[in-house]
Structures are given as C-alpha cells and as structure tokens.
Amino acid sequence: MFLPEIKSEIGEDISILIKLDNYSYNFICECGDASKLTVKECQNTEAIFLSHTHIDHFINFDFILRHQLGIGRRVIICGPEGITQQVQSKIKGYQWNLIEEKSIVYEIKEIKADGQILRSEINPPEWEIIPLENNAAAALFQHERFQVDFTILDHKTASIAYLFKEKDRVKIDMTKSQFKGGSWIKDLKTAFENKDDLAPIKVGEKEYQAKDLFHLIAIKKGASLGVIMDHAANESNHEKIKALFTNCDKVFIESFYKAEDQEFAKANFHSYSTASANIMKACKVEIAIPVHFSRKYKEEEIAVLLEEFKAGLK
Q1: Cα–Cα distance between 229 and 227 in angstroms, integer?
Q2: What pLDDT shows up at residue 137?
Q3: Average pLDDT of the chain to the nearest whole number
Q4: Per-residue pLDDT at 124
Q5: Is pLDDT of 171 > 90?
Q6: Which spans in the chain are helix H?
Q7: How far is residue 79's CA from residue 54's CA, in Å, rounded to a whole number?
Q8: 43: left (phi over 0), alpha (psi -120 to 50) or beta
Q9: In the chain, at which residue ranges do the beta strands (DSSP E only) sit?
Q10: Which of 164, 182, 228, 275 sits in a 20 to 30 Å window from 5, CA-based?
Q11: Per-residue pLDDT, 29
C-alpha cells in the first residue's frame, strides 16, 4: 500500500513523500518546498522523481542532498532530458575537498524525448558522469513490490508524469478448501505465477497437479498512485493521461490556476481547476487530489480553486 504525504505548504512549491507499508525506505516526488521533510525522511529516500527542473520543482534538491551525504547508499534520480547535467551542476556548485568517496552514489535515469532511458551515476568527490549500461526493456524503476511507469507531457518543456503501480499479489483462499497450511501454498503460488499447470503439489500425503488447485487462487489487485505535475490542459496531454492513469486509485494532479484564469494557464502551459478535475473524471480516478497552486493566490482564492475542482469531479 502506498502512503503518500504532501510535504510542502499549501501555497508553496510542491513536494510529495511516498512511503510503503512495512518498508523502511521512502520516495520523493518533486523537490519544491521541503519544509515538512524531516532529516530522517531525506536520509531514508531510495529514489527521487522529478517532473521537470523549473525552479519551483528543483529548488530544494540541495536541502535533500545536504541530509543524504554520508548515508553510504545508492539513490536513484529520475527526470526529463537534461537531468543528468543539471544534477551534476547543482552538486558541483559546492566545494568537496572533505567528502569521502563512498558517502553516497547518485544513479540518474534520464528520460529522453523518445522515451528511452539513459542511465549514469555520479560519485564524490569529483562528481563526474559515469555512463551505465542501458536496458531498453526495463521499467523506469523496478521494486520488489511495485514499478514506476511514466508518460511525457507538454509544459513547453518535457514534464514527466509518474504512475506507481503495486504488483498484484497471489493469495490462497483457504475458505475454499479443508487443507491445512504448509509448504504447498508457496509451491502452488509459484506454479500459478509460472503458468505451470502440471507442477506437482503435495498436500499432506496426497499429490495433485497444480491446475487442480488453481481454484484456490485469489488475486489481490495492487494499488496505484499517480503524480501528474505541470502540463498544458490540451487534448494531446489529456490523451496521454488517459492512456496511463485510467482507473488509478489515487492521483495528485497539478491545478495551478482557477477556472477564471484559464487564459493564464494556456499562456503558461499549465492546467487549471476544472480542466484537471475533468480529466480525472474521464480517467475514473477513485481519489483525485489537486495540488501545486499559483503563489499569486491567497488562502481564500485557493479555497475557491479547490471548490471548483471538487465540482468538476461530479
């Protein structure tokens, strides 16, 4: 289960922390206002996902970097074309004569315009870019419990939208049998996942073919979580959003402007309250959460924006 939490103030630059139940490490989406991120959360971060590197999404990478130095682990950074040099440039803006070589490793996954992923790493103290082998068939980010897919949206620059998709889990419905638990459960799950109908499954003193016990299998659908940041509210972007996020459990979506300011949204390649709500409705998203509002709005104006979004979902 994904446990997301907005770590930025409501009227400030966006940052979202994603945790997993029963897992020690976490994941950061966007490096905007990091005022609610704790030192431990920065240190326990396994990967950072950036939609793009406009200042309001990248400004506090330095804050996170500050607390990750010395953790002695590999941290993955995913982002659009140019992210490799941009991360390196940020880091090289500081002096590093006292840092230890293995204090941290950043692996950067740069999403090119054609969707290919370019992998590299940078290490202290020189922080030079070291190319890594690329696997065209691999997902952007693969975890034992979930994977992260993406689509490239237009914000007058590439803006990456991310989908966190938990793997479906194979379970045994013990209410459908009179068997007792045992090693056969693992064997049956393995046979089902491998589509091995004839695998021998020994339950007690009796041996079955796996296919004869597949009726005991229950599939628990994995959770899904979307993060859609800055994008123009146009048909092309909306088609890409529908292709990836339809029937998603929960989505955080940029809603930068109020409906009355949609001309500003068009001019600045942003979305606005009713457009973001409408595309979430079209995607049949179970829980849609508007985030990342223009800093020009006061608290009462943001309240209006939120009401517009809520009405647009109906």
Answers
A1: 6
A2: 74
A3: 95
A4: 96
A5: no
A6: 39-43, 55-58, 61-68, 83-92, 183-193, 235-245, 262-267, 273-282, 299-312
A7: 12
A8: alpha
A9: 2-6, 16-20, 26-29, 45-49, 74-80, 105-111, 117-122, 129-131, 141-142, 146-154, 158-166, 169-172, 200-203, 206-209, 217-220, 224-228, 250-254, 287-291
A10: 275
A11: 98
Note the pLDDT of residue 290: 98
Q: What pLDDT sits at residue 243?
A: 98
Which tokens in the block code for residue 66?
């500050």
CB–CB of 121/105 below 8 Å? yes
* CA 49 – CA 14 distance, rounded (Å): 12
Domain locations along the chain: 1-160, 169-220, 231-314
Distance of CA 314 to the CA centre of its chain: 26
Give the C-alpha separation, 52 to 230, whole Å.
8
Band the pLDDT of 185: cuts 50, 70, 90.
confident
pLDDT at residue 98 above 90? yes
Q: Mind giving me the DSSP string for 234-246?
A: SHHHHHHHHHHHT
The distance in angstroms from the start CA to the end CA of the chain is 27
Tell me which residue has tokens 């230890």: 100
Residue 7's CB is within 10 A of a number of other CB atoms, namely 21
Give mean pLDDT, residues 112-117.
96
Thinking of the domain 1-160, which architecture would CATH place it in? 4-Layer Sandwich (3.60)
State pLDDT tens for residues 255-277: 999 999 999 999 999 999 999 99
Report residue 280 CA to chain centroid gap: 17
Q: Which two tokens stand for residue 48?
A: 């950072």
Q: Per-residue pLDDT for 309 more than 90?
A: yes
Dig out the tokens for 65 from the structure.
Answer: 């970097």
What residue type is 205 in one-letter code? E
The alpha carbon of residue 198 and the mean position of all alpha carbons in its chain are separated, in whole angstroms, by 38
CB atoms within 10 A of CB 301: 15
